[in-house]
Amino acid sequence: MRAAFHLDDLPRLSRSTVDRREQVRGDPEHVASTWPLARVVRVDPQGRTPVSEDADGTLRLVDVSSRDFGEAPPEGAVLLGEEDGTAYWGVRVPDVDSANDAGSGFSATEKWRDLRVSGGDLDAHSAGLLTTAVALLSWHDRARFCSRDGSPMRAIKAGWAQLCEAHDHEEYPRTDPSMICLVHDGADRVLLARQPIWPAGRYSVLAGFVEAGESLEACVARECAEEVGVAVTTITYLGSQPWPFPRSLMIGFAAVADPEQTMQLQEGEIENARWVTRDELRAALEAGDWMTREGESPKGAHGVGGTAFEAGEERELILPGGVSIARAMLEAWAAAA
């Protein structure tokens, strides 16, 4: 049996360089003082933000001055944190496509990108800011009324909490834990599965939400049994990554299973599952990723490897993109000696 493997680097959306400044959120005077010289991350309802691209393909957020939004934070703005004396805020802006069509002030030269597609190519500063902004702004969009009595809520603590206007009940952003597990045979094979809604040839590791009253390890064992009908042992923690689509935390594990077990696929959830050798996985990693929905290739700098190919091109094995923790887990296992 091969030695256990681990993630060599943080998953792409787990990277951040910004101090969240949790200790000052309840100080209205300090929060207000950060606004005049702050930089603002704009996010539209589709989760897109403008980015610039370095020569090596790294993407960076194009933030703007808070002065573009007035003397005080607009309603719904959230304080993302501070870095090198600069405060960063997140603000929801209109849908960029509709705004451009209406000629309402967005620059036609700005390239707006979605976190799910392009997050893996952001630098650590930008990845931390945008992941947090997408998560918080999405929460505000969905949590406008009190869960206890349906009363209107208003944002407090720099956007990190909401207060029920009727009974002063505070609510905070919800995070849904989800396990994601790379199942291998302890030697040179890994178990991959595909959902019926995915593009042809796309496979990934197993994943599922943690249920009420359930431990993470119990969730791993249950989901592997439910999705593909295999029993797993040697469950070990690998790492985690926020996945704000809209509010998940992906908690990564590895586990061992006997490939001689007869698989039973969960109807409607798993279309196919297969054991893949380490060499086959390495070849798929080298082959590259499919084109993004913006029509641009993912960058090779973040583990993609080879040349990207069109979505319609037939491939026997297409792996998750570099933005996901699944990709980091597969790369780590493929690289293990």
From TrEMBL:
Its cofactor is Zn(2+); Mg(2+). Its EC number is 3.6.1.22. It catalyses: a 5'-end NAD(+)-phospho-ribonucleoside in mRNA + H2O = a 5'-end phospho-adenosine-phospho-ribonucleoside in mRNA + beta-nicotinamide D-ribonucleotide + 2 H(+). It holds the Pfam family NUDIX. It comes from the Bacteria. It is an enzyme of class 3 (hydrolase). Belongs to the Nudix hydrolase family. NudC subfamily. This is NAD(+) diphosphatase. It comes from Actinomycetospora atypica.
